């Protein structure tokens, strides 16, 4: 704040205060081959990615974009943790902890496939309507529309299907209804996706009630990427349900690494972090300029 005020007082921030978008008018002029040094008084930076013309990638940007795309087709082979989880479901509840993208849903899908072939029923629950809609579409394509229904606060379709996809709150409410009416819950497997929501301060009681009220004859499959105390969690499930709960984990980092980038106002793409793992300096500078502009606008407004 003080340094910003000093620059304003000394008049040294005039050129520095131009946002990257101000330099766009100098791009792609005939004979310039790209960004002109007139925009900043400096030699053009050849490490930038100009999406309006030719592409010149820096080392950081090449590393960011390298390898992005669909992998070549190959025969599917399940990981050992997937096979272990399927085998354990034959005898006990199972808590699967594995990084995002490692194939937790495959375990649920294969177990549901086995149950549907045997004429049995299953529920797949998620904490979010958007995720519920996505899984409904996925399972409809996999098993057929007549086999899958959806129940959320907004949608109720094919509610008599042997496989129901719904929010966890809807499943919990059905447990309450079955208790009031003295009826059985029509399911042989309950999948609780994003099971770590049990620890959510506002909604965690829904998962707690769903786990406690699910009849012992119904198998539970809990999926999560962020459970740090899996054994303690499984012990609690076993205690409240009276059914053994095994833990199946996938060791190692996530198979699909995350990459972060920042799209500047002038449509240049920058890696969010530099080679040292720190926030890209140009992004930091852009934020500082934006704060200065906001402060100046505020002073002018109340002057």
Description:
The chain has a domain at 83-249: 3-Layer(aba) Sandwich (Rossmann fold). The chain has 9 helices and 10 strands. The protein has helices spanning 2-10, 59-65, 80-88, 104-117, 129-143, 168-181, 204-213, 230-241, 281-302, and strands spanning 93-97, 122-126, 148-151, 156-157, 163-167, 189-192, 219-224, 245-249, 261-263, 269-271. Strands 4-3-5-2-6-7-1-8 form an 8-stranded mixed β-sheet, sandwiched between helices. Strands 9-10 form a two-stranded antiparallel ribbon. It is α/β, with parallel strands linked by helices. The radius of gyration is 27 Å and the shape is globular. A hairpin with a 5-residue loop joins strand 9 and strand 10. Helix 3 packs across helix 4.
CATH topology of the domain at 83-249: Rossmann fold
Reading the helices and strands in chain order gives HHHEHEHEEEHEHEHEEEH
Tally the helices.
9
Largest sheet: 8 strands, mixed
**Estimated share of beta-strand residues:** 5-15%
Mean pLDDT comes to 81
Question: Which structural class fits the helix and strand makeup?
Answer: alpha/beta
Strand order of the largest sheet: 4-3-5-2-6-7-1-8
CATH C-level of the domain at 83-249: Alpha Beta
The CATH homologous superfamily of the domain at 83-249? P-loop containing nucleotide triphosphate hydrolases
Poorly predicted regions are 1-9, 11-57
Shape: globular
Q: What is Rg?
A: 27 Å
What is the helix fraction of residues, given as a range? Answer: 25-40%
